[in-house]
Structure formats: C-alpha cells, structure tokens
Amino acid sequence: MTTTEEMATPATGPRRIATLDVIRGVAVMGILIMNIVAFAMPEVAYMNPAAFGGHTGADLAVWAFNFVLVDGKMRGLFSFLFGASTLLVIDLATAKGESPAKVHFSRMFWLFLFGEAHMILLWWGDILHHYALIGCIAYLFRKAAPHKLVAIAIILLLVEFALISSVTMSVRASEIAMQAPKPSAEAVRQYQEFQRGFGVPTPEALAKDLALHRGPYPALMAHRLAKALTTTLQTVAFVGAETLAYMLLGMACLKSGMLTGDWDRKRYLRWIVIGFGTGVPAYSVLAWYVASRGFAMFPLMLGSLALPALFRPLMIIGWACLIVLLARSGGAIVARIGAAGRMAFSNYLGTSILCSTLFYGYGLGWYGHFSRAQLYPVVIGVWVLMLLWSKPWLAHFRFGPLEWLWRSLARMRFQPMRGAAGGD
C-alpha cells in the first residue's frame, strides 16, 4: 500500500511511474469486491457462501465471477506493488543521500501501527500490519537479480501450497474421524474448530455474530482487540510465504521493466494470454467442483485455497499486464483511476470508515441484511466516491491525507502538503 512511485535518475531526479498508480487504483477498487462480504456478513461467509448471504441464483453467479477473476488477484496485485515500491523507496532514499534502511524500517514501523489500529478500531480484515511485517523481510532481497527473485518466489509459493494442502488434508481427516460411531472428544473439538473457520455456523453462533456486529461500538472493538494478536500471528503463519513471494515477484517485475510499462505490446499480450488462458479455465473448473459439492469443507478447502495457489500468480501477472496496456491508452477514466491509486492508503482506510459505518450497529446497521448479490451497488457507490474525490484532491495537495501523515511520521517531520501532486 506504499505510495511513493518515483524512479530516481541522476540527470532528471525522481520520475513518477504512472503505470504503478493505475495498477494500484484498479487493485484498491477491485479488492472491495471481495472485502465487501467481510464488512457485511459473518467472517466465515468470506470463504464459504453457504455459510451466509446466499449461494444460489444471482448470489451463486456473483460468487463464481469473483472467485474466477477477483479472489486473491487484487490482493496479489497489492503485494506485487508493495515489493516494487519498496525498491523505489530504497532507490529514492539512496539518491537523496539518506539511509535506505532507516527510511524503509521507519515506514514499516508506522505502517504496522496504522494496520493494528485499523484492525482494532475499524475492521478485522486489515492487511497493512501484515504487509509491514513481511515488508521487513522483503528488504533483505532488494539487491537480488530478477531471476533469483523469481526462483525464491517459486520456492515460497511451493511452501505455501504445501502448508495449505496440509491444512486441507487435516480437514479431510477430521471429517473421516467424525464418521466413526463414537468420535473422540479431540476429534469433535477439531471438527468444530474447522467448522467455525470454513463450514456453516450453527444458528447459535450466527445469532451471536449478528448481535455483536449490530450492537454498540465498545463491545465490537473489545472483541477485535481480544483477537488482534492471534489474528496477526495467524495471518503471518498462513499466508506469509505467499505474501513475500508476491512482493519478490513485484520486485522482479519492476527490475524487468514490466511494471514500468517498458515492455513491448506483444510481450504484454503474451503474458495476458498465458495468465488468463491458464487461470480462467482452471478457476472455472474449481468453481464448478466446489459448488457441485455443496461447498462442503474439504472440497471448499481443496478447490478454493489449495489448488488455486498453483494458478494465482499467473493470473496476477496477467492482470498487471492488462492494466499496463489499458493505462497506455490514457483518458479521463484512466487518470482518475491513477489518482485513486496514488491515494490508495487514504482510499483503503476511507473505505473501512465508510463501510463499517454503513454495516455495523453504531452506524446504519446493515450487517447481515443483504444477500451477496445485493452488496454490489454499495461497491459501485464507493468506487464512484474514490474516482470523484482523488483527482481533485491531488490537484491541490501533493499527497493524500493519510499518505501525508504516514510520510511525516516516518520522517519525523512535517512534509510539505500544499501544491498539486508532483513527482517527489
């Protein structure tokens, strides 16, 4: 979610890389397609549509569309861009005679605090604190050649696949154990734990969740605070290898010229064909498999978490290449998407402020009242707000409000704010 997109050159100084802003703009808008479910429904519905929100008719169609084209891809784009931007921040600090390590780790420290505050005060689904922790590791690979970054990323993705596969097989073993005439207490406990995370909640659990999120703010914040440390550690353990892999691939894509728009058109088209030509059929088959099995836990884990790890990186690269080509066409919409991307930090947290107010009990209390398909007019409304406010703001100010605050805290001095956004 970093926002400094300048490439330092000795002759001309920092140069803004517009394609990164456009990619980030698409990502910050696209990620809400998935996150809206996490704002509006019990947490398990994010993974399992049978848990809440509808999984037939239009609701099923929406789930399938999102699963094939969006789920994991927008988060992956953010991770790619985070890795790329890490290199740009390091290069810019070096060009200015600053300590790149001091600049980077100061940014990660404050980003972690922002993320934890976001998770506790607003919404459980924060990703910033996770990026800050993994970003500290990514710094160690800043000097690696592109081919080495790709090789390490592939190893990390295989580690992630092995981890998720082991959890998937544990789910299957738990289901088998429960078929015994008298399952042990430990088997029952483990099965119920998996049910809470991936299955269909009991009516009692569902009623408790709805009451909590439709209730007063102090109880909801206390609930998130109690889970904050566990959530932080589980996120690192469960998706840390994948996140680091995507950051390293982002570094490689920047060094190769892909993210800066330096490839020729045929090369971008080739990777679009590879990414979507491989990913869309594979994800479509998996969507059919999971839905045809009624979103039972083992098929859900296998088809939604384990096997997609093999195809997702190609889809992310395909998305990035497609967006770069669209960015080359320019136009008013592309300019507004780029502005939204330049203010991605403000737009990301602003979305949480808006959506939590709409759905939680201390606001309008819409939580649990919409089906999956009915949520998307809200998504479109938020997109419109992003596109309407970002460009005019940057016409008068150099940074988005939260970008300015983060930059000022990381450098321990107020940064200049007035004046149209430029390349610094």
Poorly predicted segments: 7-14
Count up the helices: 16
Radius of gyration: 22 Å
The strands making up the biggest β-sheet line up spatially as 1-2
Query: How can the largest sheet be summarized?
Result: 2 strands, antiparallel
Give the total of beta strands.
Answer: 2
Structural class call reads: mainly alpha
Q: So what's the overall shape?
A: globular
Could you give the distance between the termini?
17 Å
Average pLDDT figure: 93
Oligomeric assembly = single chain
> Order of SSEs, N→C?
EEHHHHHHHHHHHHHHHH
β-strand percent reads under 5%
> Which range best describes the helical content: under 10%, 10-25%, 25-40%, 40-55%, 55-70% or over 70%?
over 70%
Plain-language structure description:
There is one protein chain. The chain has 424 residues and is mainly α. The chain is built from 16 helices and two strands. The chain has helices spanning 18-40, 57-69, 73-95, 100-121, 128-138, 146-177, 185-198, 203-213, 217-255, 265-292, 297-306, 312-329, 332-342, 344-359, 376-396, 401-411; strands at 6-9, 13-16. It has a two-stranded antiparallel sheet with strand order 1-2. Helix 3 (73-95) packs across helix 9 and helix 4 packs antiparallel against helix 9 (217-255). Mean pLDDT is 93; it is low at 7-14.
Characteristics:
424 residues; mainly alpha; two-stranded antiparallel sheet
Question: Brief description of this entry?
Answer:
This protein has 424 residues and is mainly α.
